[in-house]
């Protein structure tokens, strides 16, 4: 069964930055793009590099290893290196400003 898990304060994550957390043993990356928050698997579908620290621009994150760009909303990759999408997770910010992710 899935449920929302508290993570950390939305104010801790600057625009165009990301932070990895573990929820139920899953390695999940929380991203801020333009004030919108996204939760994706923290593992590239090309060669399984961690995406943490990847550059975020306009709702896309670039893998730090070979640069494949993934859409943060859909998980879909761009380009030829992989056509496997990332898993994405429902995310919201609570009334008290805490980011919550459904896993
Ligand atoms: S491992 Fe991410 S692009 Fe190659």
Notes on the structure:
The protein is an all-beta fold. It has a single domain, classed as Rieske Iron-sulfur Protein (3-layer Sandwich). The chain contains no helices and 10 strands. It has strands at 4-9, 17-23, 26-33, 36-41, 56-57, 60-62, 69-71, 88-89, 91-93, 98-102. The strands form 3 sheets. The chain has a 4-stranded antiparallel beta sheet with strand order 2-3-4-8, with no helix packed on it. A hairpin with a 2-residue loop joins strand 3 and strand 4. It is globular, with a radius of gyration of 13 Å. It starts with a strand and ends with a strand. Bound molecules: FE2/S2 (inorganic) cluster. FE2/S2 (inorganic) cluster is lined by residues 44, 46-47, 49, 63, 65-68, 81.
Summarize it:
Keywords: 2Fe-2S, Iron, Iron-sulfur, Metal-binding. The protein is built from no helices and 10 strands.
Keywords:
MocE family 2Fe-2S type ferredoxin, Rieske Iron-sulfur Protein, 4-stranded antiparallel sheet, 103 residues, metal-binding, single chain, iron-sulfur, Rieske_2Fe-2S_sf, binds FE2/S2 (inorganic) cluster, mainly beta, 3-stranded antiparallel sheet
